[in-house]
């Protein structure tokens, strides 16, 4: 199946470079380009994109607001947003993950990393850049958060609905471990881990593993470790 990719960036030169790269792959194609967040949301709906490569800083509606709109639209529940950022350590990235992005990637990443990120997001199999994303979330959640009032307090209560094994798996997911790694650590099959992850996502109202990581930290199940 061909992965339908939408490019959202206010720099035309970057969009052109990404288009050439993506269209060179036999299993993916660029279905549209947007120069701001509002256009990105509209084109995501019109072109039925599978993955949106979203810049954060754009004029008008920025990438953060656009990610929230896409995540909040039931018709776009299967769309995955990958944040592209110039700065790997950026508080906007954490806000984007909270808003529903599947992960982030630096604009300075190698071409193969970008292509792998698109395939990973489309497959919904793993959190992008697990160690980096997990460390980033931990760093910012360890600091005073001015937007803490916007969090959903019910998420912490929903942890009570998880089984003991689901909690164990969630802690491992928050540590940036893959299903295979978790299976080895807990001495169960990867399929069993996948089942627990899917059940935890359903119970906690998470779109994907990235949001599971955020919930694990925000609820206090996992404590940030900042060196």
What's the quick description here?
The chain has 227 residues and is α/β, with parallel strands linked by helices.
Would you mind describing this structure in some detail?
The chain is α/β, with parallel strands linked by helices. It has two domains: 137 residues, Response regulator (Rossmann fold), CATH 3.40.50.2300; 67 residues, Winged helix-like DNA-binding domain superfamily/Winged helix DNA-binding domain (Arc Repressor Mutant, subunit A, Orthogonal Bundle), CATH 1.10.10. The longest helix is centred in the last third of the chain and has 15 residues. The radius of gyration is 17 Å and the shape is globular.
DSSP helical segment count: 11
CATH superfamily of the largest domain: Response regulator
Strand content: 5-15%
Alpha-beta content class? alpha/beta
Number of domains: 2
Using the 3D structure, state the CATH architecture of the largest domain: 3-Layer(aba) Sandwich
Strand order of the largest sheet: 2-1-3-4-5
Give the assembly state of these chains.
single chain
- Rg over C-alpha atoms, rounded to the nearest angstrom: 17 Å
Index terms:
51% helix, Arc Repressor Mutant, subunit A, 2 domains, 11 helices
């Amino acid at each position: 199946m061909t992965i339908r990719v939408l490019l959202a960036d206010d720099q035309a030169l970057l969009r052109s470079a990404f288009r050439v790269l993506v269209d060179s792959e036999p299993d993916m194609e660029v279905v549209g380009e947007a120069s701001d967040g509002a256009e990105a949301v509209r084109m995501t709906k019109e072109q039925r994109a599978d993955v949106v490569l979203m810049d954060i800083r754009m004029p008008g509606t920025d990438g953060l607001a656009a990610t929230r709109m896409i995540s909040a639209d039931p018709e776009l529940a299967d769309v995955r947003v990958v944040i592209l950022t110039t700065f790997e350590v950026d508080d906007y990235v954490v806000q984007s993950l909270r808003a529903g992005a599947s992960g982030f990637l630096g604009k300075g990443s190698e071409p193969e990393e970008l292509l792998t990120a698109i395939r990973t997001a489309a497959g919904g199999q793993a959190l992008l850049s697990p160690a980096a994303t997990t460390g980033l979330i931990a760093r910012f959640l360890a600091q005073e958060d001015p937007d803490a009032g916007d969090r959903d307090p019910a998420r912490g209560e929903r942890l009570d609905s998880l089984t003991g094994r689901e909690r164990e798996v969630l802690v491992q997911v928050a540590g940036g471990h893959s299903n295979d790694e978790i299976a080895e650590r807990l001495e169960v099959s990867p399929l069993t881990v996948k089942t627990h992850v899917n059940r935890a996502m359903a119970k906690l109202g998470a779109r994907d593993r990235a949001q599971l990581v955020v919930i694990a930290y925000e609820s206090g199940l996992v404590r940030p470790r900042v060196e």
